[in-house]
Amino acid sequence: MPKKKTGARKKAEKQSERQRQIRTLRENINIAERPCNFSMECDKCGVRQKNRAFCYSCSAVQKLPICAHCGKQKCMKTSDCVIKHAGQHTTGMQMVGAICDICEAWVCHSRKCLSTHACECALLDAECKECERGVWEHAGRIFKCAFCESFLCEDDQFEHQASCQVLESDSSKCVSCNRHGQYSCMQCKICFCEDHVRRKGFTYKRNEPYPCPKCGHKTCESKTMSISTRKYDYGRQNEYTTKEVHYSEEYQRVTQGMSSFSLDANYDDEDYDDNDSEAEED
């Protein structure tokens, strides 16, 4: 018989389980809810953009900057601040300690934020899959595709997600055999059957989606998504229209001269042939 757990042991196990859940929730937080990706409206020009240290349009500084790591606008009296301000709260430029080179947002002077934000910044590799622009090239927020989890800018997020569920193959069959692909990877745009989605010698966790054998991204059941296959358009699909080409006056003058010269040459050849035929008859 195993020993009975004491009350302190049960309490410690519950606390450790709760801490594990908090860590997983913190890691899996949506990128749109990250403080470095908050929506910000400039106090001077009124342009709505991503949380930044300086406005993307007019380079103005916000009156109440937001920390890119913890999301606070006011530093309290009791905090792990690098710059001590005992007995008073700090806001504005008195609260900030650095600017992140990755997300271009203020980081407060808390020791934890200054030491960990650069490594844990959510926009570390944030480059739009469609337009290949980073945080520095546009003012909008960064999002992730709901299917392939690729980074998208604010301008291309809806257009990309509308065309993301398209496979790279001509059918929805498994890439290793000819059976129906029950699981699909939206990053590789391929399907797998029940047998080939599992790898030999790999242990899978219960109640979790199978990872893709090719890239490791989690797969989803094909029946739960509106997946379509690649299509080809052969031939001319619409009425052919010629484009009007505008030439310069000099080019038109030269071409007209060449055409008149060729006509004169043809007339001379015909006259020469007529003279030869008359001479032969004589």
Automatic annotation (TrEMBL):
The keyword Iron-sulfur does not apply. Residues 1-12 have a biased composition (Basic residues). Residues 1-20, 263-282 are annotated as: Disordered. It comes from the Eukaryota. Pfam families: NOA36. Residues 266-282 have a biased composition (Acidic residues). Keywords: Metal-binding, Nucleus, Repeat, Zinc, Zinc-finger. One of its GO terms (molecular function) is zinc ion binding. Its main location: nucleus. It is found in: Nucleus, Nucleolus. The keyword Repeat applies. GO terms for cellular component: nucleolus. Belongs to the NOA36 family. This is Zinc finger protein 330. It comes from Phallusia mammillata. The gene is Znf330.
